[in-house]
Design brief:
Blueprint: E1 4-9, E2 17-23, E3 26-30, E4 53-57, H1 70-83, E5 88-91, H2 97-110, E6 119-122, H3 124-135, H4 144-151, E7 155-156, H5 160-166, E8 174-177, H6 187-194, E9 201-204, H7 213-218, E10 223-226, E11 229-232, E12 236-239, H8 249-256, E13 265-269, H9 273-287, E14 291-292
Parallel strand pairs: 3-4, 4-13, 5-8, 5-9, 6-7, 6-8, 9-12, 13-14
Antiparallel strand pairs: 1-2, 2-3, 10-11
Helix pairs in contact: 1-2, 2-4, 3-4
């Protein structure tokens, strides 16, 4: 039994791939995490023209991204927080989101649109990923020089003791720290320090899955449990959805528009139930393709 597999850039983060699997003339395509067209850092998702069977993600299958310029939104939040003497804490995914954030912050700094406050990158994985981004420039839109300049906008926090010192520093600052949904990592220690004070801002930068601390905080929770204790959330809370590396509903539909003919079946995956079902409805109504949202552990025989 011989299978042929081809990996195509998905435009989501470095290394993200659309997988094209072929066996005996039948082709199955897995979209993986689809990136956004016209990303400032990542290449566009590769158009696909044919699949007998398609599995497509639906993270934002029922939503459109905020059309605001992310740099305008970042500048407003940081300026507002710094003016009241607060710190902006950004829970960030270490790979992709942290580098995009630093790119935007570098552009804002260069344009003199940010207050003169320090920016810290406090995530060992994000530091390592930033080095990879600066080496693997053929996989994204930034040149090596642009990448180095963007990454240099932040001071890299090298060890635990240096991370702890950030929480004793009362001066306004920006801290980018993992994890992006506040499920673990150094950001939890910073949340314990900064979330209880109204002068600070907790600024999320993308999708928050149900059941995570990030979803609870952006959903208006008055407190969240961290390390066995409930921490009050009195800081300003915001989420810049437009920074998401996932295509929104319209962008997914545009990617599907490259197919020359409908797949025999499209399976909608990787999304909350409401998002997956909304995307199913759009595909059926607008493209007139057969599609379904599979059940957990459902098995389908492809012919």
């Amino acid at each position: 039994m011989i299978f042929t597999i081809r990996f195509l850039p998905a435009g989501h983060i470095l290394g993200a791939a659309i997988v094209e699997l072929n066996h005996a003339g039948t082709t199955a395509v897995f979209s993986g995490d689809l990136g956004r067209p016209d990303s400032p850092t990542m290449c566009d998702p590769t158009p696909v023209k044919h699949a007998d069977y398609l599995l497509v993600e639906s993270t934002y299958g029922n939503r459109k991204h905020d059309p605001r310029d992310p740099e305008d939104a970042l500048a407003e939040v940081i300026a507002r927080t710094a003016a009241r003497g607060g710190t902006v804490l950004i829970p960030s995914f270490a790979v992709g989101r942290a580098q995009t954030l630093m790119h935007h912050l570098y552009r804002l700094k260069t344009a003199h649109r940010l207050p003169d406050i320090p920016i810290f990158l406090d995530s060992p994985m994000a530091v390592d990923a930033s080095d990879v981004y600066c080496r693997e420039t053929e996989s994204h839109k930034l040149s090596a020089a642009e990448c180095r300049k963007a990454c240099a906008v932040a001071r890299y926090v090298q060890d635990v003791e240096e991370s702890k010192k950030l929480d004793h520093d009362t001066m306004p600052k920006v801290i980018i720290s993992a994890s992006g949904m506040a499920t673990g990592g150094r950001v939890l220690h910073h949340l314990k320090r900064y979330a209880p004070e109204p002068k600070n801002t907790i600024l999320f930068a993308g999708f928050q899955a149900g059941g995570t601390r990030g979803a609870a905080i952006t959903g208006g929770a008055e407190s969240v449990k961290i390390h066995g204790a409930y921490i009050p959330i009195r800081a300003e809370v915001d989420n810049l959805h437009m920074l998401s590396a996932h295509a929104d509903a319209d962008e997914i539909m545009a990617w599907l528009g490259h197919f020359r003919q409908p797949p025999r079946m499209t399976f909608i995956t990787h999304g909350e139930p409401e998002a997956a079902d909304a995307l199913r409805h759009r595909i059926e109504e607008e493209l007139e393709w057969p599609c379904e949202v599979p059940e957990y552990r459902e098995t389908v025989q492809l012919r």
